[in-house]
Protein 1
Amino acid sequence: MYTQLALVSSVLLAVFTQHAVAVDKTRDPALDANLVTAATQLDRLALLDSDDAWLFDFTKQQPYYNFAPGGVVNMNAATFPAAKGNGMTLAMLNLGPCSMLPPHYHPRASNYVVAVQGNTTTYMYEENGARLVTETLLPGMATIFPQGSMHMMVNNGCENAQLVSALNADDAGTQARSKPYPNIGNVFTNGFPADLVNAAFGQNLASSDVASKMTPIGTGSNWGLSECLKQCGIQPNDTYIKF
């Protein structure tokens, strides 16, 4: 017999194996490799021999730069070779009205987040025995998610929200599940609001058909609570589950 935790863990494992999350694809693997083996900084500069090699336009990274429901655009070693070896990722987080970044963590970096636009609530849970840290970020306000801490972000209103995130690694990684299985169960036992967690997965987790109804995450963001969507007059497109 499964315990309740094992049941939840098994359901989540099935969910995550059937629905891919946003993953950065390395734009120029050969250039990244050459930058690693370059003997001197001048050799590195010779490999990045045009002004275009030093410019990254967040707004042109499609489909990730959007507000319906939103997305995460990373400027890192994979997407921007000039970042290789500089120990940092810069990310732009777009949250359309009522959208959210579901629970996740970064295994190789701490995450500093500052709000540029909108009203965003953040939730962070660092480890077993820790308390849930909840913040409301308005423009000019910031918070930090320590390396490995589980966190999520929710746009509370009917206007777009935008945040800028800095991570102290050029390959920070993003993980929405982990082993052993009890770590998966933490998503539902650490104090995150149950309705928001269920919104992230598109279904009550105890149901047998959760995998088939989970909200696709694709660009890193998904629609949030049905109450907010109704209040803002938003009808998600057919790509996303309607609550």
Protein 2
Amino acid sequence: MNFQDKVNFIWAIAELLRGPYKKEQYGDVVLPMAVLRRFDCVLSPTKEAVLKKYEELKKTGLQNMDPILNKISGQEFNNTSRYDFEKLLADPDNIASNLRNYINGFSNNAREIIQYFDFDQQITKLNDNNLLYLVLSEFNKIDFHPHTVSNIEMGYIFEELIRRFSEHGEAGDHYTPREVIKLMVNILLNEDNEELTQKGLITTVYDCCAGTGGMLSVTENYLRQLNPDIQVELFGQEINPQSYAICKSDMLIKGQAADNIILGDSFTQDGLRGKTFRYMLTNPPFGVDWKKQRKFIKQEAETQGFDGRFGAGTPRVSDGSLL
């Protein structure tokens, strides 16, 4: 399957929801299910080994098993439920309760991501409408392991799905095409190529409107191609819970510190206050006003000056992009 085939396949699954769900609600099911399937594929090769070690550790009374289990899973997360997609489908009569058991089996950092989708209520709704087994079985047909679908391509898939689910979103909700991001990254980093090839280099990248993490991922990819030994630390903040969850899941799978991705409005809730970064790039909310944040921003500008973020002054309220 090429990229478009994968998107069309998932869109066909979304169309199964027609009736109980409106088109703009498809994402409430498809996005978390895609993240779950991605996690399932990533953990599949080490699933049995993790379960075996988990049973051994339970007998010792060890409270924090994650460091040991993560080492076995080869990821920054794990799952200790006996279920995976295959086993869930083997027991259709109990699929809702078993799916909840599966989700609860994830380590806290992965389980938190699923919680931001408010997926539990969708499990009930899907099950009540006899759709849960059908949707799971369709997702089980697609291989989302990173060896098959790279992190960059997975980002493309999520963003295209979100675009389709949100065709009537406001101007600032649109996602930046990866080709545009690549151009931005090349312009940003080109003059530093010599510096960035040094051995033992650690660099940081920040996006204050991170979306699903496209800019962070493309920048990291550029830097690693330029210097395989470089340590890249990614930071971001995103206001939309679904986009935040997708971004954080991507960071988790790539081995980045997922806690560096913050949920909240970066205008009014600076989740990374006091931190500085070597590089910053973002697609600001063009065409979106900042009336709701005006009081907070004006207060910071007047009381903190250049010790805050708005010391240079504030633009007209009609376009938040100039902030």
Protein 3
Amino acid sequence: MTLPNTMKGVCLTHHGGPEALEWREDIPVPVPGSGQVLVRVLAAGVNNTDINTRIGWYSSDVTGATEGVDQEVEAGGHAGALTFPRIQGGDLCGRVVAIGSNVDLAIGARITSPINLPRPTASNPHGYTVLGSEFDGAFAEYCLVETADIYDVSASPLSDIEIAAIPCAFGTAELLLTRAGVGDGQSVLITGASGGVGMAAVQLAQLRGAEITGVTSPTKATAVRDAGATHILARGATPEAAAYDVVIDVVGGEAWPSLIRALKPGGHYAVSGAIAGPMVTADLREIYLPDITLHGCTYQPPEVFERLVMLINTGKIKPLVSATYPLQDIARAQEDFMSKQLPGKLVLLPPA
């Protein structure tokens, strides 16, 4: 197969609004080195991580909700300052078209990858890097990936579009449930249950045998129930106190104290997002007196995504994809994503 020298894609030129995303048709196609593969991108999901990186929300200078960021930042990526231009895109489904040396993978294999890639060291056992943040991702026709970071999903009955909707949302959700120790018969409250991560958490918690309450708006309640929620709590309503074994939170914001109070003594709170705002007020007595355990969840050990791949290849999970867009329409796709009007995931399609 003869590969082109250049490709089309979207480059992030600086932190900012949609104007920071630049469509280019002269991006050099990367060449795989030792231990690397070149992937033809088949589909790429839209997610909060890529948007947060674009607007610089990960900077400690930002204290508001994700939809309200309107300030200049210098170090807005997961690991601090980014190198621009950067091809974002952490949700990848692709096909291997070229391999470097020391690679044991067939040309033509359909693959996916976690968005948060484990890079533990002796000094930082939770070290990681992010696809589409610290190095180029899937918002282009081709993507270069380390062999150790990819998983073969050729056997999956899911479509390319569905697989592209899984890595960020389901990877994060599986991590949250794992860290909180969700098991059979437990009562679990999931915030943002109609979004990508929240709906994935509903599906995955159901597979674990949990009894699920999803927080969502009335217009999305049916979709959340269809995903596996037994109960619905209207967004903005206060959850019952001491009613849940686990709270899975991707929202944060002003309602945070009520989530802690919703936990039974000995309960677990797991967080991996704060779309309503990262700054919260806590009464430490409400945490230590009832022995509440807090889990911050970003680093994904390999076994988390390995479990997901088994579910992908056996078709036991199926993301809800509400809409697809040409990659060139990324600004519109991200605007629709931020509007929170569509449940589940949105997916971008590169040029055929």
Protein 4
Amino acid sequence: MHANWTDAIEETLIAALLGLMTLLTFANVVARYVFNSNILWALELTVFAFGWLVLLGASYAVKKGMHLGVDLVINAVQPRARRVLGLVSVACCIAFACLLLKGGYDYWAVFADLPPTEGRWFPLGFPETFRSQSFYEVNDIPLPEFLRFIEGWLLYPGDPPFEKVPKAIPYAVLPLSAMLLLFRFLQAAWRIWHGSTDRLVVSHEVDDELAETRAGARETE
């Protein structure tokens, strides 16, 4: 039950982002070639939506085992060695996700009026002072009225109100997606450790497609 509703949320969000990108692109084409006009903020919003789609989709693909992988070596060794290789590979992925999380948070934090972490590779604490960039805005997307409440968080007394969306909003996907990716890799490590699987990538969509193609070819002979 838990997996079903979380899958539904992630799949709905990914589908909504894809639909938004398609709708914006189509509307902008119609505006340009039919009405000789332009939706100024459509391109930038499409770029941000694509970024959210890719970053959130990456963690969902880990959850479903849909990333591409080469299992030639794993299939050539004994089951016990497969498990060891699986743990090594997922450990590398966890380390990579940790680096992404640090980098993503540090990049986003200054836009959200939060201190970035210290340390080049690993977080070693927070600085006593930092240069906030919470007043930075995107280039074209106007700030909707229902998001005006965020000004109380990001702006200081005397700062002018936002005209465009603050960068803290679209760039929030960087630490969010990195956290999800790390969580999915930890889940995969748990499954490998307890023996429910022996590898990180478990899907064989290409093999399935080839098998279906061969079966269809035999039926037509």
